[in-house]
Each structure stands twice: as structure tokens, then as C-alpha cells.
Amino acid sequence: VKGGAARRAAAATAPPLALLQDVDALQSSNHSLRRQLASAEESRREASRRAAAEAEALAVANQQLQQQLRVVMEQAEHEVASASAEASEWQRAAKQAAELAERAQATCAAEAGAAAAAAADAAEMAAALEGLQARFDAVDAAVLTPLAQWYEASCGAAPGLPTSSSSASAALPRSAGFIELKARTQQLLGGSSVDEASHQPKIQLAAVAFEALAERLDHLKAELQQLRSEGVRHAAELDRRYGSELAQLRRAAGAADARADAAAREANAARERERIAQARLEQRDEA
């Protein structure tokens, strides 16, 4: 209290000029502070305008980025859907190719079985023809050739079959089959001691019968040879036909397997592309 009173007393006793100087200093300081305040306010407004402009630019950039992100996501989803559809299509193609390969293999197996059966039939026919040829060869050796030799050796003695003379009998072959045939002929004619003149019609008839038998055997031999030729030709035709068909079926099966493998590879590639697209989409979502 005492200090304040002293200051008031000193102020009361101070000259007026000093007070005016203090007032001017205070006013000048006040004006300076006001200018600083106005400058600060202008700086604040400028900073606020810049912040608003930057915020607006950021909002526009964010909107553009969101639009680009939506476009990229739509493209990625479209790529994923396309890759998935392509993978499904290749899977269906691979399945169809596998089914085609299975059908081709089944057809090839069936044709191979048919060809094997036809080859077995041809082999059986060839074996039967060989058996018939052997039988006819045996008949030829046992009957036809001895008859021809007998007829040629005795053709000067009598027409038809030879007589039972010693010269004709000496020229006869001595096989068991021919001896039996000769015995049956002599039994039919009534024995060699019977008068040949009384049995000449029977001799003529037997000669005609033996000639007919020889002609029939020749015909059968020719027919057998023809059958053998046809059998060989048929076997060759079967071999050529079924062999070419089997080769074609094998080539078709190989081509079907190749198409199935290619379809499987394309399906795997499509699945890989789908996986890559899905991974890119997830990375973009994370970003």
C-alpha cells in the first residue's frame, strides 16, 4: 500500500511530457500488435484456404482412386470369371476327350477281338483245308494213281479195266489199299478164273465207274485247290482289312489321347491363370 501510494505520488509529481511519451509508446506498441494480429489472421486464413484446397484435391484424388480401384476390381473379377469359365470349358473338353479315348480304345479292343476271331476262323479254315488236302492226297495216292497206272499198263490188252492176266497183274502196284481194291473188284466180277467174255459188260461198267471216280477225284482236287486259294485270299483280305482298321483305330486312339493331354494341359494353365488373377485381386484388396 505504501509502494502504490509512492508511485501515485511520483506520477502526480511527474511532468506531463513523459506521460505523453508513454502514451505514444503504448499506442505504437498497440498498433504493432494489431498489425501482427492482422497478419497472423491473414496467414491463418491463407493456411485455411490452402488446407481446404488441399483437402478438396485429396478428396478428388481419393474419388479418382476409388473409381480406378472399382474399375480394376471389376476387371479382375471379370478376368477371374473368364478364367474360371475357361477352366470349366477345358475341363469339359478334357472329360469329353477322355470319354472319346475310352470309346476309341473300347472300339479298338472290340475290333481287335473281331480281327482275332476272324484270324482264328481263317486259321481254322486253313487247317480244315489242309486236312482235306491231306485226305485227298491220301485218296489220290491210294486209289487214283494206282488206278491210272493200272489202266495205262493194261490199256493194250483190253478196253476199260485190265484183265486178270499175268502181264497185267505183274504191272500192278502192290500197296495194301490197291490190293484190297483189286480183291473187291475180283469179288464183284466173280473171280479171275471166270470167263472174261461172259463178264465183259461188267468189266466195261467197272471201267466206266472207275473213270467217273477218277474224274470226280480230279474235280474234287481242283475244287479243293480253289478253296485253298480262296481261303488264302480271304485270310490275306482279313489281315489287310482288319490290320488297316486296327492301325487306323490305334492312330485315332493316339490322337484322342493327345487331344486329351492337350486339353488337360490347357485346363491346368487356365486354373493357373485363375489362381494368379485371384492372387492379384487379393493383393489389390489388401492395397
Automatic annotation (TrEMBL):
Protein species of origin: Chlamydomonas euryale
Top-level taxon of the source organism: Eukaryota
Basic and acidic residues bias locations: 258-287
Location of the region described as Disordered in the Swiss-Prot/TrEMBL record: 257-287
Protein name, as recorded: Uncharacterized protein
Keywords noted in UniProt: Coiled coil
Coiled coil: 23-107, 210-237
